[in-house]
Design brief:
heterodimer; A: 103 residues; five-stranded antiparallel sheet; 2 helices; 31% strand; B: 49% strand
């Protein structure tokens, strides 16, 4: 849950998401969920000439599992807070991927 | 007379250090991460979790492109081309790509 909370603090910031298929998309983070699926607004593909098929797309939803990296502005990150949270997170190991959806 | 039995058993805390505990010692240190797809990262570890998702700061990515020289059948000479991509900001790395 650490990174979910972390990404929630980044909503509204411009980020660059690099996918596993080497596609890199820059946009404003509007939404994130527990699976780290990402919604971006007002997107721009980083290498336009190489990947033209997103020309008409303004907003997108990216499945969390296809993300390789997310490049974030360093200014938006409080490293001390992150490290502290990571230390605490490590003491409670996630028991077999706690991704339970109750309806 | 009531025999008071004070249980002196301490609260169960993993006395054995698990690998993730060892990673915890590396927080705020520069580390080397090997990823799938012949990629390597060097950066400062700011955060991680049980999936090995990580936040690295001031990170340098190295992608290794292998070119095979097939002139001789006896020896296959590989020329490693290292392209270094520098992302000086913060980088979130998804855990399922991490090997080492």
């Amino acid at each position: 849950m650490l990174f979910y909370s972390f990404f929630k603090t980044l909503i509204g910031h411009q980020v660059t998401v690099e996918l596993k298929n080497d596609l890199a998309i820059t946009g404003v983070l509007t939404s994130v969920d527990q699976f780290l699926n990402i919604k971006l607004d007002d997107i721009r593909v980083v290498d336009d000439a190489k990947y033209p098929h997103m020309m008409a797309v303004k907003n997108c939803f990216i499945r969390g599992s296809v993300v390789r990296y997310v490049q974030l502005p360093a200014s938006a990150v409080d490293t001390a807070l992150l490290q502290d949270a990571a230390r605490r997170e490590a003491q409670q190991p996630t028991t077999g991927g706690a991704h339970s959806i109750s309806r | 007379m009531s025999t008071e039995e004070t249980l002196t058993a301490p609260v169960e805390q993993n006395a054995v250090e698990e690998p993730l505990d060892l990673v915890r010692l590396s927080l705020d240190e520069r580390i080397y991460v090997k990823l799938r797809g012949d990629r390597e990262l060097r950066g400062k570890l700011h955060a991680y979790d049980g999936h090995l998702n990580m936040i690295l700061g001031d990170v340098e990515e190295t992608i290794t492109v292998v070119e095979i020289n097939e002139e001789t059948y006896e020896e296959v000479i590989r020329v490693h081309k290292m392209t270094v991509k520098r992302t000086s900001e913060m980088l979130f790395v998804r855990g399922d790509g991490v090997i080492l």
